Amino acid sequence: MLDVEDWAEIRRLHRSEKMPIKVIARVMRCSKNTVKAALRSSGPPEYHRKAPGSIVDEVEPRIRELLAACPTMPATVVAERIGWTRSIRVLRTRVSELRPVYLPPDPASRTTYQPGEVAQFDFWFPPTTVPVGAGQERTATQLPVLTMALGYSRWRDGILIPSRSAEDLFAGWWTLLERLGRVPRVLVWDGEGAVGKWRPREPLLTEATHAFRGLLGVKIVICRPGDPEAKGLLERTHDHYERSFLPGRIFTSPADFNTQFASWMANSNQRTMRVLGCRPADRVAADRASMLTLPPVTPVTGWRFATRLPRDHYVRVDSNDYSIHPAVIGRRIEVVADLATVTATCDGQLVACHDRSWARHQTFTDPAHADAAALLRRRRLQVPRPLGVDEVEQRDLSVYDALGEVAI
Fold first, then answer.
1. Is the pLDDT of residue 151 over 90?
2. Of 18, 249, 258, 301, whose Cβ has the fewest other Cβ atoms within 10 Å?
3. How far apart are alpha carbons 122 and 156 in whole angstroms?
C-alpha cells in the first residue's frame, strides 16, 4: 500500500515538476495505476482494518426487538431475556449503542438570564470548624454560610451567619443585597423553612418573607424539592468553594472566616469563567444597571422585641444572656440584635451595647452595669426604715399570769 510520504511526492512531481505519469512511475518505482490512483485521490491514503466480529452480533436482532418494545429496558434485563451468559460489559456496551435508535432524544435546554433578572440564594455548610468563644466550636451542620449567585453575571458573594433562624437569615440576606447595592427582580430560594415552601401553583411564603419582598418590590421563587438543576448555579458554586477556598485554611473566629472568604471571593470574581468567556466582574455592572434600587427604608431584620427589664437586669437573645443598665429595672426596653451587636434602648436612650456572641448558653456582663447594680444595692440598704413598721408588740408577763388565773 502506498504510504503518505510517497503519495505526497507523487502529487508534487505531477503538479510542481510537470512530470508525466510514466516518468513518475519510473522515478517512484511503482506502477502507472498507482500513480493515477494517487492523483485521483482527494486525501492521503488511510489504512482501514476490517472490524472484527463480536460475540454480541448473533443476539443483536433479539436486542433490537426488546429495545423496540421498551427503549428504557436495562441491560441486565436484556441479558436475562435473551439468556446471555457471557460478559455483561460487552452486552451493556452494545445496548448503549443501540438504545438511542429507539429512545426519543431528550435534549437539555440551556438556561439564559437577562441582566438584573435573577439571583439565587442558598445555605452552604462548609466541612470545617470555627471557634466561637467560650471554648466552643461550630461544626459543619451548625455553621451556615448564606451564599448568593447572580444569573447573568455569575457574580458571587456569601456571609457566615450565626444560625438558620429567620432573624439571622433575613439579616444576612439584607447584608448581601446591601453589598450588591441593588436588588434583582427575582430571588430564588430552595425550600428553606424560614422563607417558605414550594407549592405547584405559587410558593407558600412566610409572613416575614412577604414583608421583606414587599419592601423590596421583588418576586420570590421557591424551587421544587429534589430539583437541584433549578438552582444549579449555587450547587456548582458550593462544590467550587469546598475545592478551592477551604483546603489548608484555619479560622480563628467567625469574623476571621468572613474576612478570608470576602478576600478570596473578590479574587474569584476576577477570574474568567468558561461558561461566560469572560470574568463576572466584566458583566456585573450591566447586571446592576438593570436591577431595582434599594428601598429607602431599611427592612426590619434581626432580633427585635420589647420587654420589661426584670430585677436581675439581663435579657436573653439566641440562648445567651446580656446585661442591661440596672437604672431602668422595671421599665420597658427595646432590644435589637443583628449579626454583630446586641443593643437595648429605653425611651430612646441607649442602655446596653454588646458584641453578639456566637457561643451558646453564655452570660455577658458589662462592668459598668455590674458596678451600677452594686451601687444601687448599697443605696437600697442605706435607706432608713419608717418607725413602727416592723415593730412587734411586747406584752407584760403579768397579763399572761392573769389569763392563767381566769382559766383556773
1. yes
2. 18
3. 12
